[in-house]
Design a protein that fits this description.
The two termini are 17 Å apart. The chain contains 9 helices and 9 strands. It is an alpha/beta fold. Strands 1, 2, 3, 4, 5, 6, 7, 8 and 9 form a 9-stranded parallel β-sheet that branches. 40% of the residues are buried. It has one domain: Alanine racemase (TIM Barrel), CATH 3.20.20.
Length: 244
């Protein structure tokens, strides 16, 4: 049974309060941190209830699943859609057409395809560069587990900088699933250090955003500078996996 708008609002406020307390604990301003509510496998009625509860930032993993939802609430003011999953090249047009943010840009090839599509539509897209901080073979993103090799990342990022319709706003990562909170915080710290490394060497960039942290580990991410946390089931309740 999907949660009601009232239940979703209670969950949302509880997460907001935890973010508030964690931010104050580490000397940060709570309003620096945005919740992207993950709606993967959630039906439209849940998203409508979330909007009724005051939520306006939504994250989707699969563009083809998101399009129907986006079109259904197109008239609601202030809603923004974040692509947070790996993007297959053949689905790039959906992202270039329907999304406001992409958290998972992980190759020059995808960047250049998005650039061509965005140019045709006279649109721009805010993007985050995805990095594989944990060194997992199964994870997407530029390999960045070894700081001694971070210099090797610079040429490809400079190529993406030359795409005028892509606005590089920051970085994203997902730590290994089996990590403890303390271990997760170490991965988040490494992403922050990578951001600082890139910002120093590519001064024309403005890398203000760090997308890291989920329902399981967002307090650790906030302690290390997260500006976007991706939270789904802790706010919306269990997913309907029959929907894919």
């Amino acid at each position: 049974m999907p949660l009601s708008a009232e239940q979703i609002q209670i969950n949302y406020l509880r997460i907001q309060e935890k973010i508030h307390q964690t931010a104050l604990k580490c000397g940060r301003k709570p309003d620096e941190i945005r919740i992207v509510v993950v709606t993967k496998s959630q039906p439209l009625e849940v998203i409508k209830a979330a909007i009724e509860a005051g939520i306006r930032s939504f994250g989707e993993n699969y563009p083809e699943e998101a399009v129907g939802k986006i079109n259904a609430i197109r008239d609601v003011e202030g809603v923004e859609w974040h692509m947070i999953g790996h993007l297959q090249s053949r689905k790039a047009k959906l992202v270039s057409t329907y999304f406001d943010w992409m958290h998972s840009l992980d190759s020059v090839r995808i960047a250049e395809k998005l650039e061509r599509l965005l140019a045709e539509q006279n649109r721009s897209l805010k993007v985050l560069l995805e990095f594989n901080i944990g060194g997992e073979i199964s994870k997407y993103g530029w390999s960045a587990s070894n700081p001694s090799r971070w210099f090797e990342l610079l040429p490809e990022i400079e190529q993406i900088q030359r795409c005028p319709h892509l606005q590089i706003c920051g970085l994203m990562t997902m730590p290994p699933l089996s990590t403890t909170l303390e271990e997760a915080q170490g991965y988040f710290r490494k992403l922050r250090l990578l951001r600082d490394f890139l910002q120093e060497r590519l001064s024309s960039l403005n890398l203000t955003e760090l997308s890291m942290g989920t329902s399981a580990d967002f307090p650790a991410a906030i302690l290390e500078g997260a500006t976007m946390v991706r939270i789904g089931q802790a706010i919306l309740g269990p997913r309907d996996y029959s929907r894919g």
